[in-house]
Design brief:
By secondary structure, the chain is an alpha/beta fold. The protein has a domain at about 90-110 and about 230-460: Rossmann fold, CATH 3.40.50.1100. The chain has 21 helices and 16 strands. The strands form four sheets. Strands 4-5-15-10-11-14 form a six-stranded mixed β-sheet, with helices on both faces. It is globular and about 60 Å long. It starts with a strand and ends with a helix. The relative contact order is 0.14.
């Protein structure tokens, strides 16, 4: 029997996996979740000898049940190929007592590649399965990494267009250059004067605009999403935690059935939610350590049970985590409420109206698997310098948040459980912050000089994604007020 999906805000709004992938966001503004979390269905010891592609099929077939074996294997084979600079796809590196899961070996050197390399294939396959004749318009807000990964995935894909909104002055220089130099007749990149939450809220508003939806439909278009609100983004992220467990087994770091901890730097909550889903499938994960930067809305939530975005928005050295509205948390709230869509909808309405909500004591107790922590920019910089000096291993600013939080957790708890830290971006993407953390003497160098010096001190090759933008021409230079998002979408699509 196919696994069905339902909206977190309306139990009667149901969809197949392919329909959920195609829609991206439910019509009522909710997020699609599986009606049950399936079992892993693999003997743990078997994971040690499985390739990334084999692991991906074993996990994804449990969730995407209306895709045929042929269709799903085609999507996986097309996604996880030479676009990645290592056949391992997601290598596991040990440094100073932790295992760093490198999720940045794809085309845009950030963890978003892990899911956005496959989403275009899942989506176009879904369109065929559901006899969708309209052109799919991918509408995405980005805090830095999703945008480029989505653009790279959907550029010149027939039957699609993609529009990415990013916060002007709220991403790193490399992140912005990667996006605004993107080629492809079907691509559009727009900076907004505001922060990521403004962009994300604006995108959700466009999705929920029924009149705009009718206008799009009459012009032959339909919206979908490449953000992690799309279940087609979330399911592929579960894969790499299962793969990491297999790598630990193969390396002899653990035995089948041994517990591991997972530490994830998070802002929008999708990456750590994927680890939680892996745990629910039966992967032996003990603690889920949620690492925040100074925009510590999630840290405060897990500590108090109060989610409150009414606070100062801080621009940090880990910009992809500069988020105060963590969209994917809604999927956890729904589950903690006993899959009660009405209760979840009530809490989300409170968030929209007041900017905050409080979960019940019973719901808070359901989140016992989560531990939270946060790191300041000074602590992040210190952690990058410390780990490099001790081991020669270089972290980006986001992974350093997680590394810092994990070290603090281990020191306070004494927990020596083998721990996987999600390494979410290449240090080359944030070379200025990274190199100044390694040694303040680098402060005066230009961006590409820093990149070349990072290559020298780390003994790693400058990624192709960086080489490509050294002299790339800016193709997207539009910057708008957040109130102009709908008008900009209409302009790009040529509809009035």
């Amino acid at each position: 029997m196919d696994l069905m999906y339902r909206s977190t805000r309306n139990a009667d709004n149901r969809a197949t996996a392919s329909q959920a992938v195609l829609k991206g966001l439910a019509e009522d503004g909710g997020l699609f979740v599986p009606e049950r979390i399936p079992e892993l269905g693999i003997a743990l010891e078997a994971l040690a000898d499985m390739s990334y592609q084999e692991t991906a099929y074993a996990v994804m077939k449990q969730f995407l049940t209306d895709y045929t074996e042929e269709e799903l294997k085609y999507c996986i084979r097309s996604a996880y190929d030479v676009k990645f600079d290592t056949p391992e796809i997601a290598p596991l590196r040990e440094a100073d007592g932790a295992h760093y899961l490198e999720l940045f070996h794809g085309k845009t050197i950030a963890f978003k590649d892990m899911a956005l390399s496959i989403l275009p294939y899942l989506m176009t396959t879904a369109a065929k399965k559901n006899h969708e004749e309209k052109e799919i318009v991918i509408l995405t807000a980005t805090s830095g990494d999703t945008g480029k990964a989505a653009l790279a995935g959907f550029a010149d894909v027939p039957g699609t267009r993609i529009i990415v909104f990013y916060p002007k002055n709220g991403v790193s220089a490399v992140q912005e250059k990667q996006m605004v130099t993107q080629k492809g007749e079907n691509t559009c990149v727009i900076g907004i004067r505001g922060n990521f939450d403004d962009a994300q809220t604006g995108v959700k508003r466009l999705f929920g605009d029924a009149a705009l939806g009718e206008t799009l439909a009459s012009a032959g278009y339909r919206f979908s999403s490449a953000n992690s609100i799309n279940i087609g983004r979330l399911v592929p992220q579960i894969v790499y935690y299962v793969y990491a467990y297999g790598k630990l087994l193969k390396d002899g770091a653990i035995k089948p059935g041994d517990l591991i901890n997972v530490t994830v730097p998070t802002g929008n909550f999708g990456n750590i939610l994927a680890a939680y889903y892996a745990k629910c499938m039966g992967l032996p994960i003990d603690r889920l350590i949620c690492a925040s930067n100074e925009n510590k809305v999630l840290y405060d939530f897990f500590r108090t049970g109060v989610y409150d975005r009414n606070r100062e928005f801080i621009l940090t050295s880990s910009p992809s985590m500069d988020i105060l509205i963590s969209s994917n948390l809604e999927r956890l709230i729904y589950r903690m409420a006993g899959d009660d869509a009405a209760e979840n909808a009530r809490l989300m309405a409170e968030l929209s109206a007041k900017g905050s909500y409080t979960v019940s004591d019973a719901m808070k107790a359901e989140m016992k698997d989560f531990t939270s922590g946060f790191a300041t920019m000074e602590e992040v910089s210190s952690e990058i310098g410390r780990l490099y000096a001790k081991t020669g291993y270089v972290l980006d600013t986001h992974t350093a948040v997680a590394s810092c939080v994990y070290r603090a957790y281990r020191g306070q708890s004494g927990d020596q459980t083998p721990t996987v830290i999600a390494s979410t971006a290449s240090p080359y993407k944030f070379a200025r912050s990274v190199m100044e953390a390694v040694d303040p003497k680098y402060a005066g160098m230009d961006d590409f000089g820093l990149i070349d010096e990072l290559s020298r001190i780390s003994g790693t090759k400058v990624p192709q994604a960086i080489e490509e933008i050294r002299s790339a021409k800016v193709l997207h230079d539009k910057v708008i007020e957040r109130e102009q998002m709908e008008a900009s979408v209409r302009e790009f699509l040529g509809i009035s």
